Structures are given as C-alpha cells and as structure tokens.
Amino acid sequence: MGLLDGKVVIVTGAGRGIGRGEALECAAQGAAVVVAEFDPDAGEAVAKEIADTGGQAVAAPGDVADAAVADGLVETAVREFGRLDALVNNAGILRDRTVAKLSDDDWDAVIRVHLRGHFLPTRAALRHWKQAGQPGHLVHTASTSGLLGNFGQSNYGAAKAGIAAFSTIVAMEGARAAITSNAIAPTALTRMTLDLMPDEYRAKRDEAIERGQFDFFAPENVAPLVAFLCSDAAAHISGKVFGVQGDSIEIFQPFTSVAEVTNGGRRWDPEDIPGRIDELFAASGIGAGAENMMARMRYQILDM
Q1: Mutual angle of helices 17-28 and 40-52, in 10-degree steps
Q2: For 254-304, how does the pLDDT look when each residue is reduced to its tens digit (9 = 90+)?
C-alpha cells in the first residue's frame, strides 16, 4: 500500500533530475503517472522505467509553456487513467548571466518556461477539478534563488520568487474547493547544476558515494516530500513553501514586517528620512548594504 494508491499524478520536466525522481516516487507510492517532458526520448525512458517495475505511466512530450500542450496533459490523464488527482510543476531551465550581460532571449526563455510553464498546467488542472467538483493537489517548484536571491540568476530568481507567490495565491483561490497548492525550494545536484561544481568537489562526492555514504544532494531526496504533498494525507496543508534536501525538510516564513518608524501623523519630508531610516536597521538587525543572502542557507553544497 502506498500514499498514492489509485491516484493519478502529472509531473512536468519528469525526464531527468528532480522531476524523474518525483515521477518514480509517485509511481512507487501507487500513482499512475503522466510523464510530461520536453525531450520525448527522456520522457519515454522514464515511463518505461515505471512500467518495467509494475507501475502505470504514459509519456506526454511537449512544451508545457504552450497552452495546447498544458491542456493536453490533463486530457491525457483523464483519457488514459480516468482521473487527475495531483499536478507537480517541475519543468525549468537555466540561463545564468549578470543583468548587464543578460540578453532579451535569455530573460524571456527562463521567465516563459518557469512562470508560464507553471501557470498553464495549473490552470488546466484547476478548470478540470472545479468542473468535476473534485479536490486536487498542486506542488510547484520554487528555489532559494528566488526566496533569497543568487548572483547571476536574476531571471531564474525572479521566476522562482514569482512561483512562490503564485502558489500562495492559488492556495487561497482553491481553498473552498479543497484544492491545495504548495511550493518546494529544493537543493539538489542535477544535470543543470552539477557542471557548475568544482572538479575537486565532484571527485569528493563520487568517492563518498562509492563508500556507501548518504548522497545528501541527490535529486531523488526531493521526491518523498513531493509524493506526500500530492496525497490526501497532506489535504490540510496549503499555501506553504518548503525547503527540501537530503534528509531535511524546512518551512520558509513569508516576508514579514519586522520594524517600523513613523512620523507623528505627518507626511514625511525626504530630508528627515536619512536620520530615521537607520532605526529600522538597528531594530531589525538587517544590514543596510547588499548581502549574499544564499549564505543564510542552512545547508551549503560545497560544505558537504
């Protein structure tokens, strides 16, 4: 028996990395899986992998940032398996550059795949569930690059921050219909990120895996939380953003006002603000200058 017995789950970007791990775990938990993947060969390989272990899966190739493809995922789930219970939005790309060097195309491509690629499948799933009068579960993929900010990833970080906000709003809109919406901010070494690591780190990691040590940043470690959030066991949880890596599950607190200065019921004069703004930094402990916010992460890949 699994958490997802009898359920049907769509996973986008399921051909490799985190998405592949999510698709395999959902299948292991009893779900029939629609393997949505831009690369047809990669999607077919994952669907076959699930079928070879006794599970149910169908590959659905295409660009999830295209409305017809996104709508077709829901149609495929219903046609092939009779229903849809959960959607995992995972598809994404990287185009890292500092803002001054970032091209229009690199900005547009990342925003399109991440934000539009979350919006369209979500809209299709919501329309289906509301028409069917059925509850459902949505899991979206944000990132610490969006929650904290990361040098050279303005396009990716902006998209991922938008996904966290998108998930929170969808949670509010879906609450009356028993539709949950949560986001994860995973940390894992995938094909997109491993090549960015120094050679010595990769060699050290390979040696540790050969010795049988737990591979903390393996993408498969993200999947158990996602499978849980797709299940009815998580029906009481919505509008949250979770960090997940290794054996760690965290919860992020949204932006919260932590300090205030007021001006005695009078409109501020800009000349008065320099003498008062430092009160905010003193009261909150927040630094006034630019910070490397990623240094605040609980787990650093290069430290492992």
Answers
A1: 30
A2: 999 999 999 999 999 999 999 899 999 999 999 999 999 999 899 887 776
User: Measuring CA to CA, which residue among 125, 99, 96, 122 is closest to residue 109?
Assistant: 96
Give the model's confidence band at 207: pLDDT under 50 very low, under 70 low, under 90 confident, else very high: confident
Provide CB contacts within 8 A for 241, sequence distance 6+: 142, 147, 164, 167, 168, 182, 183, 184, 185, 251, 252, 254
What is the token pair recorded at 294? 């990623």
Q: Is the pLDDT of residue 192 over 70?
A: no
Pinpoint the alpha helices (H) of the chain.
Answer: 17-28, 40-52, 67-81, 104-111, 117-132, 144-147, 154-174, 191-194, 199-210, 223-229, 273-284
Token readout for 170 is: 């969808």
- In the chain, count of helices (H) and strands (E)? 11, 8
Query: Which amino acid makes up residue 78?
Result: V
Residue 263, CB-side half-sphere exposure with 13 Å CA sphere: 12
Q: By percentage, how much of the chain surpasses pLDDT 90?
A: 86
203 pLDDT above the threshold of 90: no
pLDDT tens-place string over residues 135-175:
999 999 999 999 999 999 999 999 999 999 999 999 999 99
Structure tokens at 67: 């409305």
Cβ atoms of 152 and 110 within 8 Å: the answer is: no
Residues annotated as catalytic (active site), given as ranges: 143, 156, 160
pTM beyond cutoff 0.85: yes
Report the C-alpha gap between 282 and 260 in whole angstroms: 11
CB 170 within 8 A of CB 87: no
